Batch of 2 targets.
Target 1
Amino acid sequence: MNGYVADSGETVDFKDNARMHVHAGTVARYEYQQDHDLYPVEMHVIRLGDIAIMTNPFELFLDYGNQIKARSPAAQTFIVQLACGSEGYLPTAMAENGGHYSAYVSSGITGHAGGDLLVRATIEHIRKLWE
């Protein structure tokens, strides 16, 4: 036999390099999360007249986008996701508590604490542009 039986009853074929790579990536993300409190990302905030545009490397839950737009002093705030990289989903606490697939370690590098930090940092940078 080329695989093993996991607790879920699923047989994993060790010759299936694609699936093994996904599982290895999940383990690496989990280990990173255990060893680091922060995950550095590239983000940008620019002002064009009364418009703010921000970029980030995540796929945000709607709640984060709504928080940023509601707290922004700009007349309109545009959020460009999956820019300067692709770090996966950025789940909310509700998604994590509900067991949503986007909150799995395999779906993103950080959890809701990273989302809260991204919102605060984005608003801080936008407000500096309006001072």
Note: The CA atoms of residues 42 and 94 lie 25 Å apart.
Target 2
Amino acid sequence: MKALILAGGYGTRLRPLSCDKPKLLFPILGKPILERTLNVLAEIGVDEAVLAVNYLANELKRAFGRRRGGMAIKYSLE
């Protein structure tokens, strides 16, 4: 099963926090929001996640790479 995650927003309502970090990397209880999302997707059987990225896309790529556990991660630039 595949999943599409919209991850290209600028996070303008979270400024100045989002000036140098995408909002999906903000921690909630010690883990980035995106990590929590990927964990839930893996639990329900998703084996490939496509992240639709734009703003600070390289930060997300650096943080999550191409694979997380058994899930392949691909990036699509918006």
Note: The longest strand covers residues 71-77.
